[in-house]
Task: inverse folding
């Protein structure tokens, strides 16, 4: 059955239509300005491409703007061992793309038959038969078709005989925390997160990196130290490097809840291994909310949390005793309040 839903298009004051099946794409209006990509992270470079898509639509009198994305990443289907980590799960990606002002989002559930089409077959049997775009807008590194054998020049050549224009958008450069100008890309943002450089990642994303998951019962050590924590089982996303971070938390009852915009609570995050208390050092993801009272907001067990990473406070380390650890956590909380601007 054809699946269709909506997302709030805040910029345009309209609703972004979301199509999640290829079977009935004839419902998508023809002659749209279309951009195709994974859009993982929905970062500032993606924003530049979507803005160029809007301008192309206006210039050519297209019927609207559309983005086509993939879930999961094509490599997760073709070569799972090489699939990149996820920055934005689909519910979050939908919300962020809706906020750019797009009219239509097409979600392709990857399968071998589509991914194995040659560039010419992809254009003729998929784009032209199902969507008939007026213009395609892509970055210079765009690849499509079997084995990524098609590029923007292939697309231009095919468009010239199929009746669509191709616009190529130059990459956006951002400055990293070392003062170097670098191309804004999903792969670079993933590496910054793996390195613990969450502030640099946020500058490229245009917002803090958001990690989402469910709260499960922990060992109660944080509560015993005077700093109760929510222990989170994350969805399949990139984890920042081990360390202690200042951030903000959003609470919800589902993944969709925490993918949406909502009220935020200042917090301290710990990503790391419990070296002070155990020997096998399991990796833990914990959040201590600085202003949350369970008596007012209710218990967090089995609820969903979104963790927005603002800045790194320090690396993980082993402490000589629980008392020394508690003192350090107190200093971490004070530093987090300074970073977040809370009293």
Result:
């Amino acid at each position: 059955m054809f699946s269709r839903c909506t997302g709030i298009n805040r910029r345009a004051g309209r609703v972004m239509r979301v199509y999640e099946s290829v079977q009935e794409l004839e419902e998508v209006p023809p002659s749209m300005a279309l951009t195709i990509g994974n859009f993982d992270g929905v970062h500032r470079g993606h924003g530049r491409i979507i803005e160029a898509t809007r301008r192309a639509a206006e210039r050519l009198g297209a019927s609207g703007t559309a983005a086509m994305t993939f879930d999961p990443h094509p490599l997760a289907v073709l070569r799972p061992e090489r699939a990149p980590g996820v920055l934005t799960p689909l519910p979050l990606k939908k919300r962020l793309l809706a906020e750019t002002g797009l009219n239509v989002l097409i979600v392709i559930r990857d399968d071998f038959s589509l991914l194995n089409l040659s560039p010419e077959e992809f254009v003729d049997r998929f784009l032209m038969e199902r969507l008939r775009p007026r213009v395609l807008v892509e970055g210079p590194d765009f690849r499509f078709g079997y084995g990524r054998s098609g590029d923007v020049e292939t697309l231009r050549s095919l468009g010239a005989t199929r009746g669509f224009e191709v616009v190529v958008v130059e990459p956006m450069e951002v400055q990293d925390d070392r003062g170097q100008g670098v191309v804004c890309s999903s792969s670079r943002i993933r590496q910054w997160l793996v390195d613990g450089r969450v502030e640099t990642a946020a500058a490229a994303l245009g917002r803090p990196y958001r990690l989402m998951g469910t709260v499960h019962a922990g060992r109660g050590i944080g509560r015993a130290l005077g700093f109760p924590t929510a222990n989170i089982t994350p969805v399949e996303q990139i984890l920042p490097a081990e360390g202690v971070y200042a951030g903000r938390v959003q609470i919800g009852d589902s993944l969709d809840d925490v993918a949406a915009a909502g009220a935020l609570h200042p917090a301290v995050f710990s990503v790391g291994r419990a070296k002070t208390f155990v020997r096998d050092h399991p990796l833990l993801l914990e959040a201590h909310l600085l202003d949350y009272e369970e008596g007012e907001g209710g218990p967090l067990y089995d609820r969903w949390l979104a963790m927005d990473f603002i800045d790194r406070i320090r690396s993980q380390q082993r402490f000589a005793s629980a008392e020394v650890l508690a003192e350090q956590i107190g200093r971490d909380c004070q530093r987090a309040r300074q970073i977040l601007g809370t009293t």
Observations:
- The chain has a mean pLDDT of 90.
- Residues 52 and 137 are 7 Å apart (CA to CA).
- The first helix runs from residue 44 to 60.
- The chain has two domains: 4-171, 208-340.
